[in-house]
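SAMPLE LOG
Freezer: B-3
Tube label: C17
Construct: single chain, 110 aa
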Amino acid sequence: MNIKKEELLNKLSREDSLDLIQAYVEEKINVNTFNKKDIASEMFRLFFNVIELGREVRVSIKEENYKNSESKIADIFLVLVSICNSLNINLFDALTEKEMVLNGTLAKWI
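STRUCTURE (predicted):
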């Protein structure tokens, strides 16, 4: 699937946004920069980005400027999607199944 950034943003909807994001990440990140079999590297990137987010949140709170934290959260999300793609996990299906298991009780998984 060949998806351009503008097309991705225009096509997003509640029903298919995660599928489109996963396809976009598959095309742009995994295909161009990752060996999909190297989950350890992806996990390291995830941990590293979470640590960076923690540092950035502390600075953001002091400065009351959250733009850099927003960027770090996006990095984490993209790496997480990349991991899902490498493991052939459909993120929307996983979230839907999780919600069904928890019977719609949000407090159980926060």
